Amino acid sequence: MTQEEIRICTQCVMDTTDPLITFDENGVCNHCREFQTKISRIPDNPKQRREIVQDLINRIKNEGKDKEYDCIIGVSGGVDSTYVAYYVKGMGLRPLAIHVDNGWNSEFAVNNIKKCLKKLDIDLFTEVLNWNEFKGLQKAFLRASVPDGEIPTDHAIMATLYKQADLRNISYIITGGNIVTEAILPTSWSSGHRDWRYINGINKSFGDHHLTSFPHYSFFELFKYLFIKRLKVVNILDFIDFNKAEIMKILKKELDWTPYPAKHYESIYTRFFQGYVLPTKFGYDKRKAHLSTLINSGQITRIEALRVLSDPPLTGQMLEEDMDFVLKKFDFTQEEFEAIMALPKKSINDFPNNYSIFNFLLSIKAPVLLRKIGLIPKDR
After folding, report:
1. How many domains, in total, are found in the chain?
2. Residue 1 domain-assigned?
3. Three-state secondary structure string covering 60-126
4. Residue 339 lies in a domain
5. What are the pLDDT digits (tens) for 289-321?
6. At 67, which CATH number?
7. Closest to 96 (Cα-Cα) out of 178, 177, 154, 173
8. For residues 64-78, b (16+ Cβ closer than 10 Å) or e, as one string?
């Protein structure tokens, strides 16, 4: 698809590089309409949101009063997870921070986690992935020629959060996920995060090692965690005023936090995959999704977003350094990597998966859970 053939939304910056995008009669895309649907589930009234959050905090404190920790949080060193740590600590909770070290942390990420948790006096548990297993899994996703190369890390993070919450008898997992900065992401660009059948199948077909220690959960284990153990995953940032620019100022001032060039660039592999592999091989620039979310939440203008997109996501010296680092870490020659980049593009639909089952399960669980703990009013 040439630049001239690309059609762009009149409201955000999503375009027809998402093969599933649709437009209404005004040229507004389905992502903008879906954003409004998601945000409409959150109460408009700030006082009501504060009451919901305070009620949640009280529940967490009450359920965890005799435990060492009353909730679990994931930390990556990025904006969202760092602010969750800052916020819940300020609300008087006693969180245990969980970090999954997949071997790709940037120096920024390591330093941010260390100094921020030290200032907040929050204990840290780190799950260090077996590098040979994980390297083989990431290489398998590249060889499978799918755009889902980052989902193994996402899966391992959630598996670790679920496992630690279960082991420690902690009911609440508080994440940095939120609508106002993350609501838009085409499923065609990334899918299968929860799907162990898909992930393990890719590894069996294209990987170098059996996944004997990789943190994971099956469909039945997820059912156990959510329906039997009744673990509650809460995106608390949806219920506070979360303006990214203002939050970054707070974190820099209060925690000496260091910002990254772009969202999720705390990981070197994420930076390389999103900045080079996805746009070069698949034509997917995830900045469009991130910026479109910020446009819809009123945090930037469409003109500002287009100005950002006028520059490539990864160029120059950083691209050269990342390319060299990734190829050496994966034991790839330049020729081997170029051959992988030239493979025909595929998707999750080309491999065995439980994608539709997971979506059905969570479509039932999520609204029920959120209404039960008061994060969505009962009439929504």
Report:
1. 1
2. no
3. HHHHCCCCCCCEEEECCCCHHHHHHHHHHHHCCCCEEEEEEECCCECHHHHHHHHHHHHHHCCEEEE
4. no
5. 999 999 999 999 999 999 999 999 998 999 999
6. 3.40.50.620
7. 173
8. beeeebbbbbbbbbb
